[in-house]
Amino acid sequence: MSKRVPLRVFAPASVANVAVGYDILGFAINDIGDEVMFKAGNEKGLILKSIHYNKGLSKDLYKNTAGFAALKVLESLGLEDEPIHMELYKNMDIGTGLGSSAASAVAGAFGINEYLGRPYTKQELLPFATQGEQIADGSYHADNVAPSLLGSFILIRDNATLDYVKLPIIKGLKAVIVHPKIKILTRDSRNILSPQLKLDQHIQQSGNLGAFVAALFRTDFELLKRSLDDCIIEPQRAELIPYFYDIKSIAIDNGALGCSISGAGPSIFALCMNNIVAENIAESWKKLYSDKGIENNVHISDINTEGAIIS
Amino acid sequence: MSKRVPLRVFAPASVANVAVGYDILGFAINDIGDEVMFKAGNEKGLILKSIHYNKGLSKDLYKNTAGFAALKVLESLGLEDEPIHMELYKNMDIGTGLGSSAASAVAGAFGINEYLGRPYTKQELLPFATQGEQIADGSYHADNVAPSLLGSFILIRDNATLDYVKLPIIKGLKAVIVHPKIKILTRDSRNILSPQLKLDQHIQQSGNLGAFVAALFRTDFELLKRSLDDCIIEPQRAELIPYFYDIKSIAIDNGALGCSISGAGPSIFALCMNNIVAENIAESWKKLYSDKGIENNVHISDINTEGAIIS
After folding, report:
1. Are residues A207 and B159, on separate chains, in Cβ contact within 8 Å?
2. pLDDT digits over B203-236, tens only?
3. B143 and B81 together in one domain
4. Residue of A nearest to B209 (CA)
5. Which residues of B fall within a CB distance of 8 Å from A197?
6. Domain of B57: which CATH number?
7. For the stretch A135-149, what's the b/e string if a residue is b when 16 or more beta carbons lie within 10 angstroms of its beta carbon?
């Protein structure tokens, strides 16, 4: 058994769907994310001792995405009896659409793996983190978990097998994110969606997804811009988010490459080709929501390239 | 006016849909295709003088994909009165699923443009060729026309604007194609398709399309293989093609990267990572259809990189 050293890890927030990749596309952002601390415990097994900043979350390992992901790693190694003390620093609010539950799950899986002396590669942790995330919304999909763990843009070819592709990043690409502080549960935001779509919508959206992937490989901002158009999910969810179309117009008018709902919302993201565009959008977004009396956070970020790290 | 020199052009056959890109993905193949000859005429306007090898096709410019595409180019230049004599060498059968009408349309547009001294770039001919193709099946889509004109794998981001992306080719990639000589009209093959699909199917197919595009950029045969799986169109059309699933099993068992219906069928294609695999599949396919008493043509090809050429 390798020597156990206490440590704290950070897993970033992420933007899923990204207009054209519902349930299969996401990217990680900087600065925002959750942290988990692991150290030796004095009771048998893993114990989630405390959760900072969010008293509402359960410390039951089977009901906490970070705890469950860590537990699954331990079980796979036959180490579930090892006395380990875990603390979750829940820096992110729940229900923002920025992969809060995924960040916790990733931090749990990544942190316990580092604590144990790295028995798994980072890539091998994806199923554990995805099982953790599954606790939050009931479905098994890795479009938040994979970018939070691995960084960059990630395309999930197949959620069942977690076969994914890490996509290249275009230098200079910036994300602007606004979180209007209203509550949408992922579960509700999923339920609003029609389980069917038209073949024409599928054709349109697929063309845009394929072009989006090609644009990243070709470092082609113009193609990226033309491809960032969601004809399936956004029209159904926009009504859940106050002033969504005003926010989107601001982004496009200021030169954003694209703007859509982050994950299940209510956060909204825009992708921009440089920081000046991003700052103009951030400022106008803040003003709009503040003028309307809606509390909000606005954040500008590069695309996070590292994913989960020791903090 | 530039000097007119008689010429003959060739436009290749193509495989559309390619399992994961219904109406938006196609590639061109070698050796099979249609030809059009242009020379000065002795009557006012463009005249489609003769059609070789297929007496059933109309010589009316408004009912012939090659003639209509050429006419559209002439009209756009105000040259519709110039006396031009056109002959179509219809080498391909109709209704094979190998882009026969598209090859004619491309040869018409490309040929007249060359004859006129190249007023348009090859890329600029895409709308004219697509209008020609539209005569054949009524819908405006470029997944056969674009690869026939430009070569390689082409992804159509948006059929309405003909915004496309030329995708890279992996060296060594081979296509095997079998045409069982039964008749399916594209129109019928379209009508069999449900106009709706499940959101889950869309997610699955999109993941595969995105991964397919990434695989070409990464020259990743394994990813290409995992991505070539059609959960939407193939299951609906397979019943139109005799022994489709036997043919597919032969391809996969022999190591094909993937196998599905070419365009609207009945032709079937397999992609292979080298010529030995391709030859084994070709031989077994020929044997199966011949044993069952179904007349057939089998063809092995590199991915055509040039598209339409002067022949």
Report:
1. yes
2. 999 999 999 999 999 999 999 999 999 999 999 9
3. yes
4. A210
5. 196-197, 199, 202
6. 3.30.230.10
7. bbbeeebbbbbbbbb
